[in-house]
Specification:
Elements: H1 4-7, H2 25-40, E1 45-49, H3 51-54, E2 61-68, H4 70-84, E3 89-90, E4 94-101, E5 104-112, H5 116-130, H6 132-146, H7 150-168
Helix pairs in contact: 5-6, 5-7, 6-7
Length: about 170
């Protein structure tokens, strides 16, 4: 999923502050998704993923994935840039925008629907949704390693994800 070099950007001493799941967040997610649809239209798929969608503790942000064809990408990217400014990260198959709405940070990922990273993320997310034991293990891992450092937290999450993805052999 990610290279060792990617982890170096994370703090190696500060712990991660996890936020317990709160079902009230779903109301805010629905409100923000409606606002997002006003910007990009209704003819695209928006998926809520991540800890808030799984009902577990997390870093306190909401992950929304907008999945489009490469053709639609060219139309939607400028709309998102007009609304949210330049993306925080940009690649040829995805763009990441961050926006705070009602004191909740939203990470908005515009992705090519057949992008390998998106497909793997979707497989992992769906696996956790349908495998309660693995979901519990994942949350326990997040809680345990959040106390170490931001870097260690993300390294351990990546190892867990790789173990799960071996089941699906998506290489």
């Amino acid at each position: 999923m990610v290279s060792r070099k990617w982890f170096m950007k994370f703090n190696s001493t500060e712990p991660v502050k996890l936020v317990p799941y709160n079902s009230k967040i779903l109301v805010i997610v629905n409100e923000f998704t409606k606002l997002l649809r006003k910007t990009i239209g209704n003819n695209v798929t928006i998926e809520h993923r991540g800890a808030t969608a799984l009902g577990i503790s997390g870093v306190g942000e909401v992950d929304l994935y907008i999945m489009v064809s490469p053709k639609k990408w060219k139309k939607i990217l400028p709309k998102l840039e007009k609304k949210f400014g330049k993306p925080g990260s940009l690649d040829h198959e995805w763009a990441r925008f961050n926006q705070v709405y009602k004191n909740i940070e939203f990470e908005i990922m515009l992705v090519h629907e057949n992008c390998k990273d998106n497909i793997e993320n979707q497989i992992f997310f769906n696996h956790l949704k349908s495998n309660k034991k693995d979901l519990e293990k994942y949350e326990q891992l997040k809680v345990k390693y959040s106390k170490f450092s931001e870097r260690e937290y993300y390294i351990q999450k990546d190892k867990f994800i790789k173990r799960i993805m071996k089941i699906y052999d998506t290489k």
